[in-house]
Amino acid sequence: MRALKLPHLPRPIVLASASPRRSDLLKRIVDDFDVVPSDAVERIAPDCAPAEAAKANARAKAEAVARGFKRGTIIGADTIVAAADGGIVGKPTDRADARAILTRLAGSRHCVITGVCVIDAASSRTDCRAEATWVTMRAMSAAEIEDYVASGEADGKAGAYAIQETGDRFVVKVEGSMSNVIGLPVELLEKMLQEWNPDEE
Description:
Elements: E1 13-15, H1 20-26, E2 34-35, H2 50-66, E3 73-82, E4 88-89, H3 95-105, E5 109-120, E6 126-137, H4 142-150, E7 171-175, H5 178-182, H6 186-195
Parallel strand pairs: 1-2, 1-3
Antiparallel strand pairs: 3-4, 3-5, 5-6, 6-7
Helix pairs in contact: 3-4
């Protein structure tokens, strides 16, 4: 995928995330951007639909960074998992939580949802959307889960696994965007940036 030519976007373009995975994905479509980690706290309101929760967190992250700029295009993102039982799964709070999450997801089909938010710092114009990808995981033994969690790879990952690293060995099927599962749906973001018009009423 070639980097986009985006002369209409106000500069700087800023990724509001400390995630190296999101930064690597953004490089596929944007060749010149800054990284400013957001200090927004991720929250999931009770009874909130998964896509709305992901979009709300993405917006909060982008808004927190946008406050530090007079102009520019700020991009925020947040990834969550909707389990087969309908519950929302975020990042594990600790390794015990990671074991519980993987036990819950093993042998089932779940939905990975990433909210993406683009904000124009000068006007505060905002566009928030979400992408969903279905992932089917095979059954996993308690020993496999324990070894995976002990490796540290589950730490800080939505759903407690990293499909782009060794977590792919537990995945038997992906329906939709792979980059979305990694943490930034580049196809959706490319469409958003190409359509972006911060001056539009």
